[in-house]
Amino acid sequence: MKGTTMRICRAFLLYLVITVLASSVCGEEVSGAVVVPQLEREKLPGRQVKVTAICIGFGGKHEEKLKQAIEQLHTAGKNGVDIACLPEEFAGTKAEPIPGPTTKAVAELARQYNMYVICPIREQAGDRQYNTAVLIDREGKVAGYYRKVFVFWGEGLHCSTEGVKVFETDFGRISILTCFDLNYPELWAKCDELDVDIVFWPSAYGGGSPLNAFAILYHYYIVPVGAGNIIDITGKTHRNIEKPWDKQFIATLDLDRAFAHHDFNREKVKKMLKEHAGEITVERNLSQEDLAPWWLFRAAKPGVRVRELLKEYKIETLREYQHRSRRQINEARLKGERI
To answer: Are 59 and 136 contacting, i.e. CB atoms less than 8 angstroms apart?
Structure first.
């Protein structure tokens, strides 16, 4: 009897060990809090982040669309996404507060998978209603919101009086613009002024070439969610889809990549590239195809950060150069000074 009991105990312990190991291999804690870890960014070149545009369309029946969104968020989470973005008013046009039924349901997935989620809803705020994109953080908490500035004709909603916002995340700075906001360059210029890395654009449609133009002009990534046509900082449509999930576009973006102007930087760049050969690469430079006198740098080794090296060698990024030049030239203009 004693021997039988010992064998049962050993078998039970073996079962526990196998269960824990299996959970570990799958990347899932026994508690179910985390299923798949995000990128280990400190071990990768540059500053990488995994994003997804979940393209399930605008509006519809609330319960059906919310169920569809949750299914897609499970897919995003199991693929280690850092931030997922849902479309404009994806779960219908019935207004609700923040937090409310939709944000609470989405927040559960954000917490479970340790990811940010942009959850656009029709917001009821007192006696006013807004087209609002809610940012939910990795712990499932509301981190902020953006209310659509340029409401489309017939939406029957109030227009934001708060304007463009910047949100600090653990991977970088982001802004959100929504659908009809596409048509107003001052909003996109404000995102540049706020020094954002990515602009998320939840929408009822794809957007097209104006998005490419803004990405080229302002050197940030754009993640459109109408059609998932993610735009690179070079203005090219980013289709580096890791897996062809239906209605979901997952891509890994390197937020450390940086442009620098040829002005005043040629010798400094030459020195930097010589002293850090193999650590940093020139991804793009002035050519017959692209006449812009800019370098585009990318880190080539784990742990290397382009932007840190640029500071070390006193090389401004293109955005820093443009912003400083605007400020100083405008100051000279007001004083009547020559440049």
So the answer is: no
Q: Kindly give, in sequence order, each residue whose CB lies less than 8 Å from that of residue 223, ignoring residues fewer than 6 positions away.
A: 51, 53, 85, 198, 199, 200, 201, 230, 231
Domain borders along the chain are 1-32, 41-254, 258-335
Identity of the amino acid at 218: Y
CATH number (3.60.110.10, 3.30.70.60, 3.20.20.70, 3.30.300.30) of 41-254 reads 3.60.110.10
pLDDT at 241 over 80: no
Q: Tell me: the pLDDT tens digits for 300-317?
A: 999 999 999 999 999 999
Q: How far apart are CA 139 and CA 108, in angstroms?
A: 9
Q: What is the mean pLDDT of residues 10-16?
A: 35
How many CB atoms are closer than 10 A to CB 76? Answer: 27
Tell me: cis bond preceding 99? Omega within 30 of 0 counts.
yes
Low-confidence winner among 29-43, 267-281, 321-335 (lowest mean pLDDT): 29-43
Please state the three-class secondary structure of 270-329 as a single string.
HHHHHHCCCCEEEEECCCCCCCCCEEEEEECCCCCCHHHHHHHCCCCCHHHHHHHHHHHH
